[in-house]
Amino acid sequence: FCRVDPYGFERPEDFDYASYEAFFSRYLVVLTRRAIKWSKLLKGNNSIQKSLKVKRYIRKGIPNEHRALIWMITSGAQANMEQNPGYYQRLLEGEKNDKLLEAIKTDMNRTFPDNVKFRKTADPCLQHTLYNVLVAYGHHNKAVGYCQGMNFIAGYLILITKNEEESFWLLDALIGRILP
Predict the structure, then answer these.
(1) Hey, how many other C-beta atoms are within 10 angstroms of the C-beta on 99?
(2) How far, in Å, CA of 30 to CA of 88, rounded?
(3) What pLDDT shows up at residue 1?
(4) Highest mean pLDDT pick, 10-14, 67-71, 135-139, 175-179
(5) From the UniProt record, which GO molecular function terms apply (predicted)?
């Protein structure tokens, strides 16, 4: 196993690789079965209907390969993104609030210091992506702007979606609608 997990976090020096491998070799069967069920449920669609089956599947866990899509659909972020084409880019190109930018820049280097993908030496470095998402959100939701800790939420969304605009819309769904 690699010293870095799939999301870019370094494992600690005392990480027990033998126990992890023993557990994961058994759990991989469960994960594979779950992924197959999710693939059948989605059938190439970018939509799902609310049902007890979907609720049960979600509670058991969404496989990594489907997580971004399911989050986008169930949160309403996918619908908002589709209803507002180009909005995210316009936010980035619009006039900027200097106070907001300074607050965001203050927290940039504090975001996941143990994650190799957020280091300035990473290629690509996710700090620029994170900065864009936070700037766009701060201008989108002026009542909230930027609050300390939003960098970790947005950073996690970026690691999951691997997509800047989707991360913005998920952040909006979380802060604006789900947990206002």
Answers:
(1) 11
(2) 38
(3) 65
(4) 135-139
(5) GTPase activator activity; small GTPase binding
